[in-house]
Design brief:
single chain; alpha+beta; four-stranded mixed sheet; 26 strands; 30% helix; globular; binds ligand EPZ
Length: 428
Amino acid sequence: MDKLIVEGGVPLSGAVKVSGAKNAALPLMAASILADGPLTLTNVPRLGDLRTMGRLLKHMGGMATLYPEEGGSFREEAILDMSGLTNPEAPHEVVKTMRASALVLGPLLARHGRARVSLPGGCAIGVRPIDLHLKALSAMGAEFDLAGGDIVAKAPRDGLVGADIRFDSVTVTGTENVMMASVLAKGKTVIRNAAREPEVADTARALVAMGAKISGIESDELEIEGVDSLKPTSYEVMPDRIEAGTLLSAVAMAGGRATLIGARLNDLAVVLGKFTEAGVFLRAQNGDLTVEAHRGLLSAVNVTTGPYPGFPTDMQAQFLAMMSTAKGASIITETIFENRFMHVAELRRLGANVTLEGRTAVVKGVERLSGAPMTASDLRASASLLLAAMSAKGVSEISRVYHLDRGYDRLDDKLNSLGAKIKRVRDN
Ligand code: EPZ
């Protein structure tokens, strides 16, 4: 396992490219199951969860080539041909490492009429059941049994049937799962209270490029007319808005001035508003975003997470770290997951003053954090520890950075290219 050794207090400068979105590439890789031939994805970030999804697709008997090498470098591409799928299964040893494996359920039912997917256990940030996915797929005629911790699913003999579905609460992968199931179902499916996250829209656009009939994209009501088959195509993954937000937070905490190349700004509208309120200077220029901040001069701002277009829960840990050295007190409320404050205990080791009351954190800004050893617990928490270490006085160590590598495309390298002093060492 690796750990990062971070020298704090170094301002950032320069420019860095925003990678493709992990949470769009994951459903898009699952969507390859629906096609009658290869789906080529470009702008695919190089990170652990996508390698895991590639292994899962291969386990099913498909062909998955990720990051093909060309002249000594890797292309950010995934070529996925699932037409030879023989084994519609997502075993426990894969699903336990990545809950997003559940995204193969809808496509397998739609294309092969059956699936065996290990029921995802909880994870660090919460129980995270998939009851809403199963309830919606049942409405389309799917039947489920539980055997040895696996969901054994089957579609009606002549395929899934379109249905009018309303999600009791917003679910991102639930919306994606049902949307992918419905593109080959018989008749029309309506998904009400659908998630509006940009990654859902990106998945929908890729399905349309493959021949699906989907209307209401970007709204909370999707209408899908089933078709007989989906054709091979090539699709460019959208930029990762959470990576962009994380890079913004890094400049806000360490201070300095940097340009994010290729950030899709309207995906970040609410986040950018909060950064501006906190005293971060932002300037958008033909698709790039220049950010400038002075360490220690941020103002406290309150944030409540919510489904898109609200403040994303995946930016909560990073923003809380920012508020730990802001002037004043900020109230941060996490409405999506029940246990997404694990970064707080670690930030306290650097001197952060945070009081937790249920799903609310009261953050009282301190003058300066001081470096200390920390342990990462989940993907976005590990990012927030790194940001805090970059602004702290002295040296910090962060162990278990495999959490970071699951969801970011070489984030430490990107930050070092902006002048950060982060060393990655083997931590046996
Ligand atoms: C997606 O997870 C993202 N993952 C998460 O990003 C993100 O935090 C989350 O959406 C919220 O935006 C991917 O897209 C791969 P949900 P997902 O279903 O779909 C409850 C990251 O850091 N729920 O929208 O699993 C659930 O427990 C990851 O990149 C049910 O109760 O999230 C949660 O409290 C972390 N039953 C809430 O709804 C269900 O059937 C929202 O979950 C489904 C969800």
